[in-house]
Specification:
With 252 residues, the protein is α/β, with parallel strands linked by helices. It is 40% helix and 17% strand. Strand 4, helix 3 (105-129) and strand 5 (136-142) form a beta-alpha-beta unit.
Length: 252
């Protein structure tokens, strides 16, 4: 465990692949202590410079148990050891791309549980457990432009991201008058070359009219690499005025 209050602690969901994996690697390389919450652990991750690394394997489709675990774990820490503590709600899933009339109930439920319910439960546990911590407290919700712009055949994903944006606004109001209130931002990270983009490009064009637009983004090289996107997101998180806008876009 850290021996001085210059250390930084981050809890990160969806850290096993894509931008989440890239963020985890960059945080560890910077000497931050890290708790990853993902469906799978990733052997590529290794703690550096004596920092802490924990990988919790959990399906965020059932987030209540891991939210309780997070709250308990945070209460066991020596708060004075940490200069800052951050929660990054990065995990999300894209339900089958189809009009809502053809969607399966189980797919809709899983997308909303992972994309909205889990971030809310984890944020609640985080804010409660750290309310008396003296260091900076930050919550970064990884949102999407699709939370602010509707797209056919993707109601569950769009709704989850729109909900993430709006609950971030509510939390910002809750924390504004608290001693050392947490700062929160729901941040759209841009268009990234991940498995989700591959899912969009590979969807049935009969059910998903925007498929070709996403294929064109890939063909024309307009997708940001997970590594570059991670660096931009983490730089945003580190800004002194983080949270001044509860809903933002990394592209400005």
């Amino acid at each position: 465990m850290p021996k001085n209050n210059s250390q930084h602690l981050t809890i990160l969901t969806g850290a096993s692949r894509g931008m989440g994996l890239a963020m985890a690697g960059q945080l560890l390389a910077a000497g931050q202590s890290l708790v990853c919450i993902s469906r799978q652990t990733n052997p590529q991750l290794a703690a550096q410079n004596g920092a802490l690394l924990e990988q919790w394997q959990h399906d965020l489709g059932d987030a209540a148990p891991v939210a309780a675990r997070l709250g308990q774990w945070l209460r066991q820490q020596d708060a004075a050891q940490w200069a800052s503590v951050s929660l990054i709600n990065n995990a999300g899933i894209l339900a089958r791309l189809t009009p809502l009339r053809d969607a399966e109930a189980v797919d809709l439920a899983q997308a909303l549980r992972v994309g909205l319910e889990a971030p809310m439960q984890l944020t609640a546990a985080f804010l409660d457990a750290t309310r008396s911590w003296p260091g900076q407290r930050r919550v970064l919700n990884i949102s999407s432009g699709l939370g602010r712009r509707a797209m056919a055949a993707s109601a569950a994903y769009c709704a989850a991201k729109a909900g993430m944006d709006h609950f971030s606004r509510c939390v910002a109001l809750d924390e504004a008058d608290q001693p050392n209130g947490a700062k929160i931002c729901s941040l759209a990270p841009g268009v990234i070359d991940t498995d989700m983009q591959a899912q969009l490009r590979g969807a049935d064009s009969a059910a998903f009219a925007d498929r070709e637009a996403f294929a064109n983004l890939h063909r024309s090289g307009q997708l940001t690499s997970p590594s570059d996107a991670a660096a931009r997101v983490l730089a945003y998180l580190a800004q002194p005025d983080f949270g001044s806008q509860p809903v933002a876009d990394v592209r400005g």
